[in-house]
Design goal:
The chain is an all-alpha fold. The protein is built from nine helices and no strands.
C-alpha cells in the first residue's frame, strides 16, 4: 500500500469510511486509483465508489452518494467499473489471492484469477472439500516460479488456504453478498 494520511494500518480508508458510515477496507489497486485522481487522498470518484459499494453491501440507501458521484462525473455517461460489486467478488479465493499478493503477482502464464474465481464459486464448504486440489494448485505455481514446493511447503500451502477461508468467514459470516442487476450493468 501507499503512504496516505487517510489509510489506517489495517487498510481502512478514512475518507470512504466517513461517507459509508462503516469501515471501508481498500485494496492496493483502489489506493493507486485514488492517487491518480485529480483530487487524490480526498473525496473523489474512487473514494465515493468505495463508499457506495460498502453501503450497497449493507443494503443501505445510496442515493446521496450517487448524487455526489454525479457531481464528480459531469462528462461521463456511466459509472466507472470500480463501483460495481460484481467486479469485487468476495470469497475465499480473493482472500487467498490478497494473502499471496505481497510476494507473488499473477503472471501471464498462471491461472491465478481463474482459480480464485473457482474458489469463490465453491465458497467455504467447497474450498474445504477441495483443499487438496487448491494446495496442488499452489504447489504447481510455486514449482513453475522456481519456489520451494516440497512436503513442508504443502503444509504451509494448506495452512494458507485454511487462513483464507477463516478470513472470509470473519468478514462475511453470512456468506458473500450477491450482486444485483445494478452491479452488473
Amino acid at each position: 500500500m501507499i503512504h496516505c494520511p487517510h489509510l489506517t494500518n489495517d487498510n481502512v480508508c478514512k475518507v470512504a469510511s466517513g461517507m459509508a458510515d462503516c469501515q471501508a477496507k481498500v485494496t492496493p489497486a483502489a489506493c493507486n486509483a485514488c492517487q491518480n485522481e485529480s483530487n487524490p487522498r480526498a473525496i473523489n470518484v474512487v473514494t465515493i465508489g468505495m463508499a457506495l459499494v460498502n453501503k450497497k453491501r449493507r443494503k443501505q440507501d445510496t442515493r446521496e452518494l450517487h448524487a455526489m458521484l454525479r457531481s464528480y462525473l459531469p462528462e461521463r455517461s456511466e459509472e466507472p467499473a470500480t463501483l460495481k460489486i460484481a467486479d469485487y467478488r468476495p470469497g475465499p479465493g480473493n482472500e487467498l489471492k490478497k494473502m499471496l499478493a505481497w510476494f507473488a503477482r499473477p503472471s501471464e502464464t498462471c491461472n491465478c484469477d481463474t482459480r480464485a474465481d473457482t474458489m469463490n464459486d465453491w465458497g467455504v464448504e467447497g474450498c474445504l472439500q477441495n483443499i487438496e486440489t487448491i494446495t496442488d494448485w499452489l504447489l504447481e505455481e510455486a514449482e513453475a516460479r522456481g519456489l520451494p514446493h516440497g512436503r513442508f511447503t504443502r503444509t504451509i500451502a494448506k495452512s494458507l488456504v485454511h487462513t483464507a477461508v477463516r478470513r472470509f468467514q470473519k468478514k462475511f459470516p453470512d456468506g458473500a453478498p450477491e450482486p444485483d442487476d445494478d452491479d452488473r450493468a
